[in-house]
From TrEMBL:
It is found in: Membrane. It comes from Tupaia chinensis. GO terms for cellular component: Golgi apparatus; membrane. Pfam families: Glyco_transf_49 (PF13896). It is a single-pass type II membrane protein. This is Glycosyltransferase-like protein LARGE1. InterPro entries: Nucleotide-diphossugar_trans, Xyl/GlcA_transferase.
Length: 436
């Protein structure tokens, strides 16, 4: 057909008279079609039911039972003037919120290439023992979740000095309210994995579009992992968020924490000071917590220390799980002015800044328990040095307990399986790194 020539000649000829086009490429297509009507095969109208203002498409859909394509072809999109607009809008919104997992089915009677990934998955699943009391935990590790990367517009060029740091976290619908606050505290790039259903993804979209704070930021990558199965795949989410950063360093945080003001710039300076590029270090940002929903956030370390003394702040998990952060050595931190090294201890789970080539989180840990501990343990085995930053801090904001921690506290089987997975992880570590 010599299409390349055909459209160029038509465009040049038309533009001599028209000078410009209002619909860009569509005008060119229309001009080509007008001159070469034989190119067009006319489809029935139900393949393109156009819903612009005062459209005559009712003449089509009134007589057709099986519409194929509804086309919101007006700049107003869903706000067009059409007497049946509510019906079509509801149809459209229902489809958007439809559970996409229901569409993930094998097409029987439809010949397709053998999928190696799918065959491997079937093989791994068949090797699991269905009578194992921890079968569901083991199965979750093999689940392939639908994932929508960069759900909203993302545009970011890392700083050219190779010190840039991305804040990494994961969340579900019940923690959305933390996003604006984190954006106000951290001006650098952020990578977030969100665990949502299809319907929740639409709610999140509306929430984000209605937020001036979120819409003004293009350096936040939102990656949606769609819900499937009964557990919260916390470490899979962390891995998704970690994998999609473009900076040389990452700050592995949690969504319930607000970083101190200025932490982004302070971490970039510390990266240079501690030569993170050429050493295996994990820089620790000391973690604190408040039990107050309305907190006057400390602007400095001095202010934070006086709030600690007054009892409006505590070291993180001081009341329930001291071991998790004890090695940070908060007593030393109070007066420290230079970074200091600490040794790993069992159950240590600090929040750290590392190079982007650090190991992934172990997917076998889902829901609550041991998900961060296992990661820090692996960093230690890989001989990372843990270094506490003297002028950095982050504060955990209060919230209702998550569904998974409630399950952990109330369900004996959950606790037994976590213990089994923990033992298996330690055995794997011994094998992999030749320990003991």
């Amino acid at each position: 057909m010599k299409w390349e020539q055909m459209w160029r000649l038509t465009a040049e000829r038309e533009l001599m008279g028209m000078l410009s086009t209002s619909l860009a490429d569509q005008d060119i297509f229309n001009a080509v079609i007008k001159q070469n009507p034989f190119l067009v095969y006319q489809l029935p109208c139900f393949w393109n039911v156009q819903l612009s203002d005062h459209t005559r498409s009712e003449q089509c859909y009134r007589d057709v039972s099986d519409l194929k394509v509804i086309h919101w072809n007006s700049p107003k999109k869903l706000r067009v003037k059409n007497k049946h607009v509510e019906f079509f809008r509801n149809l459209y919104l229902t489809f958007l919120e439809y559970d996409g997992n229901l569409l993930r089915r094998e097409l029987f009677g439809c010949p397709s290439e053998a999928d190696v990934n799918s065959e491997n998955l079937q093989k791994q699943l068949s090797e699991l023992d269905e009578d194992d009391l921890c079968y569901e935990f083991r199965r979750e590790r093999l689940t392939v979740h639908r994932t929508h990367l960069y759900f909203l517009h993302y545009e970011y060029e890392p700083a050219t000095d190779n010190t840039d740091v991305t804040l990494v976290a994961q969340l579900s619908m019940d923690r959305l309210q933390m996003l604006e606050a984190i954006c106000k505290h951290w001006e650098g790039p952020i990578s977030l994995a969100l665990y949502l259903s299809d319907a929740e993804a639409q709610q999140f979209l509306r929430y984000a579009q209605g937020s001036e704070v979120l819409m003004s930021r293009h350096n936040v990558g939102y990656h949606i992992v769609y819900k499937e199965g009964q557990f919260y795949p916390v470490n899979l989410l962390r891995n998704v968020a970690m994998k999609h950063i473009s900076t040389p360093y990452m700050f592995l945080s949690d969504i319930d924490f607000l970083p101190m003001y200025g932490l982004y710039e302070y971490l970039r300076k510390s990266v240079v000071q501690l030569d993170l590029a050429n050493t295996k270090k994990a820089m620790i940002v000391p973690a604190f917590e408040t039990l107050r929903y309305r907190l006057s956030f400390p602007k400095s370390k001095a202010e934070l220390l006086s709030m600690l003394d007054m009892g409006t702040l505590f070291t993180f998990r001081y009341h329930v799980w001291t071991k998790g952060h004890a090695p940070t050595n908060f007593a030393k931190w109070r007066t420290a002015t230079t970074p200091y090294r600490v040794e790993w201890e069992a159950d240590f789970e600090p929040y750290v800044v590392v190079r982007r080539d650090c190991p992934e989180y172990d997917r076998r840990f889902v829901g609550f328990g041991w998900n961060k501990v296992a990661h820090i343990m692996e960093l230690d085995v890989q001989e990372y040095e843990f270094t506490v930053l003297p002028n950095a801090y982050m504060i955990h904001m209060p919230h209702a307990p998550s569904f998974d921690i409630t399950k952990f506290r109330s369900n004996k089987q959950y606790r037994i399986c976590l213990k089994t997975l923990k033992e298996e992880f330690q055995q794997d570590m011994s094998r992999r790194y030749g320990l003991g």
